[in-house]
Structure formats: C-alpha cells, structure tokens
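Long-time lurker. I teach an intro course on protein structure, and each term I like to show students one example going from raw sequence to a predicted 3D structure in token notation. This year I'd like something fresh instead of my usual example. Would anyone be willing to generate the tokens for the chain below so I can use it in lecture? Attribution to the forum is fine with me.
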Amino acid sequence: MSNRPVPHTPAEGVITRARIAADNARRAGWRRWATAAASVGIALAALLSAVTPAQATVANPSVAAAAPTADYPPPACTLTLSSTVVRAGGSLTVSGRCFRPFSLVSVRLDATLLTFAVANGSGVATATVTIPRSTSTGLHQISMSGVNANGAPLTESASILVTPPASAALASEGPRASVPLPTAGAPAPVPPLMDLSALAPWRWPATRD
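-- Reply from a regular --
Happy to contribute to a lecture. Here you go:
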C-alpha cells in the first residue's frame, strides 16, 4: 500500500476556497457589528454628558433634596438701622451687607468717624454707635464703608433724624412749681381763714329799736 497523498480533485479545491471566503465574510461582519456598537456607545455617552444639571435633578429627586438652596432674590446691599430717629447722645444699631468676609468696616456720622466693625463670614457688619451730644438737630447721614467681595470700595448710607438731647428737652418745658415741705418736728402750717362775707350775695337787713 502506497503512502503517497491522494491528489485533490478540482472540485474539492473549489469547495475549500468557498469555505475560506465564507469565513472571511463572517469575520468582516463581526468587525462591522463591533464598530457600529462602539459608535452607538460613544454617541450615548455624549448624549448623557449633555444633560443639564436641572434635568438630572428632576430625574433624581434625591439629588434635588441634597442640593443647597439659596434665597432669591439675594439680599440688597443696603444699610439697615434699628431706628431712624435718635436723640443726640443716644445710641442705635447699624448693619450693612455685601462686605468682604472678615474685613474692617468704618462707621461714620456725616464725616465724623464713630467706630469700626468687622464683617462676619457672610459679609454682614453690625455695630452699635452713640450719636455725639453735640450733634445738631436735623437730618444727618450715617454710613458704613469698606470693600466688597471683589475688593472694590463699598459705602452704604442712610438718613437719620437727630433730636435734642434729653436734658435740653426737659429744659424746654420750663420750671415747675415747687411746694415747700415742712421740716421734721415742725408744726404743719395752718391755712388762713377765708372771709366768707365776700361770697354772700345778700346782707342781713338793719334792725330798728
């Protein structure tokens, strides 16, 4: 028996080439499918990244509950006063917003420096000041000056009405009548007798003997 290989027939060679071509076609199809799947994944990732935070919050209520809330509209950068009318020599509390946190703020009455205050972590500066007794009666400006969060100068002011000091108000009422008090051990004063004849509308008729 001979060990020489049996030569293939032409038909077998055609079948083998057909199988190889089919295998190559299947591999090309798998490669096209993998490429398409990767493209879809990239497009989906881009779409998810384009979702706004507001949409994400609506889709996930737990995110909305954890998100910090802020007052709207934000507080105005104005000066607030405990009172707009104060006597000369009296006190009032002033408070200003929007200053740089922990910065130094000056408090003035017109051009007179009254005191300094330090803004807290929220940029609010508060101080209690005394209006000088020498302040004239009428309208005056009280102000707080410092810098804002960006370092730019910031001044907030408000008008107050200064009235006369308490001692001047009492003096304007005039002197009061005083009643002398008896000294200890002295007899009480006796009021004088009243002449009742002046009050009688008639007189007794004269009698005849």
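Some talking points for your students: Helices lie at 10-49, 53-59, 61-66, 166-172. The chain has four helices and eight strands.
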